[in-house]
């Protein structure tokens, strides 16, 4: 069963979309691959059919690296990463939680970090590399 459609956009609003998450915010995670380490986003899962870009599709640029399998989309105006088609599961998007209206990466006290340095598609572990924790203390 799909969740409700959530409104989402990049920082400047040039790209706006709706997203239906696969399992609400239960799939929240980070990744430790070189790109994800640098971009620092917290992502949640959505099926490919779960995203509808209704504004600024022409403003979305893509970035691919290494095997070129994962397709990372970002706004060409403000540079914010919006979502990406996953290498580990090409039938899913990872969606930047910070783009979803009313959601912040700091809403999550603990975020699992997926093993991306030794990627499962390369024979590495499918496990959790660690956890990021946020506390106001």
TrEMBL record:
Keywords: Metal-binding, Zinc. Residues 6-122 form the CENP-V/GFA domain. The keyword Cell membrane does not apply. InterPro entries: CENP-V-like (IPR052355), CENP-V/GFA (IPR006913), Mss4-like_sf (IPR011057). It comes from the Bacteria. Signal peptide: none annotated. Pfam families: GFA. PANTHER family: CENP-V_GFA DOMAIN-CONTAINING PROTEIN (PTHR28620:SF1), CENTROMERE PROTEIN V (PTHR28620). Belongs to the Gfa family. This is Aldehyde-activating protein. It comes from Kosakonia pseudosacchari. The lineage of its organism: Bacteria, Pseudomonadati, Pseudomonadota, Gammaproteobacteria, Enterobacterales.
